[in-house]
Design a protein that fits this description.
mainly alpha; single chain; 2 strands; two-stranded antiparallel ribbon; 470 residues
Amino acid sequence: MAKKPLGKDKFGVQKVMRLGDYFGDSLGQFALNAMSGLVGQLTYFYTDKVGMAAGAVATAFLVCKIIDAFTDLIMGYIVDHTAPGKEKYRPWLLKAGIPAGILVAMLFMVPKAGGGLQLAYMVVTNLLLTAVMYTAIAVPYTSLQVVRTNSQEERGTMGTWRAAMGYVSGMIIAIAIIPITNMLGGTQSAWIKVGVVFGAFVILALLLCYLTSRETAEEAGAAGKAEVEEEEEAVPFKEAVAMLFHNKYWVIILVVNLFANVIYGLANSSGTYYCKWIYGDDNLVGILGAVGMIPTLLGFILVGPMIKKLGVAKTLKVTFLMGVIANALRIFNPYHFIYNTVLGCVNTFANIPMMCLLGVMMAMAIDYNEYQFGVKMVASANSASSFGCKIAGGIGSSMIGWCLAIAGYNAELAEATTATKYAIFTFSIYIPLAMFLVMYLMVRKFDLEARLPQIKAEIAEKKAAKQAAE
């Protein structure tokens, strides 16, 4: 039985996405966030479960992230230079998905040997997972959002589904991993068991995402036609990067995403230290995660109406300002559990729209590439952006280790020293406050949303004139 044809969006663009398409596509983000979420827990695992030095772990993480970031640029080049007529993006979900799931489990199988061997194992497994397999999935997967549909409305919905599923994945880790591993004995063996389970979920999620994805804006309706992304001549790497940095909107997205990823990198690991040393019980991480589901759900429910009412840029301005205020208020009483939990909920809510709208904003910037330079450079634009984001995420994670190392952190103490407490306040409150402020100031300069309809019309006119001339 033929499916009922879909209508057009408010801009007159044909819709092509159905409920199953959104769900299947979002599973890719579930897998990616599961991997990044577990990597975010590794600082605590390495210092408190394996016994590695905080400073060494922090520095090794940053080195891994720098190498990891450069592989994004390489992957963008590989994808954009795929031979014409072949699928560019979808096959990578399988090629890298299965090895990635295996490596997730291997992260926690650190040998019980000398510090040098443990550090080497840490670096190798992290590089293989994040710099190779994660990158080989993330760059093509991010690009799929641009080529899967031409509807800005559907791209926004895809972004919301992806953000929601990714947040579900992240929250499962935030809520469950400490209580579950403690229930299993709190040892390295317990973490290995959890890693094996999450590795299996990563493989399954990417398999389902592969089966439901397509690289054409196709609607199997009455016409049954597929609108295929037009092949464009690959741009040399240096030239592509130069073009991107002359696209002011891409630069704004880059900076905002950089600082957002510093916040994400800090949030992935800081909560456990905060609960253990400021509140006195690391099991409270589960309660904070459960409470955090409330603003998360509200965020996903309200982001759509906020976008319709305010638009993309204004929605981000409002929520970033909320993040600034919430973190500023935490400074006045950082020890009170309920007070900080409530403000933490505001902080969580402030993060949701950026998670939903990053892909939408990047799609706008890619359209502006075509308007300004005549080429979209889909994979290169996404990979160059994620290059900076990975470095930022590495800096965020490494800041925790560096702050703790400066404070002389000792995981064996019964109570945190004053220096350790202020180190925790620094990476939990002060740095996120500064990041939200920078993001608020940057997004004030993003005016592409209002210009986009006219830009698309001019692109269409140029293409029509070119075809007539030929």
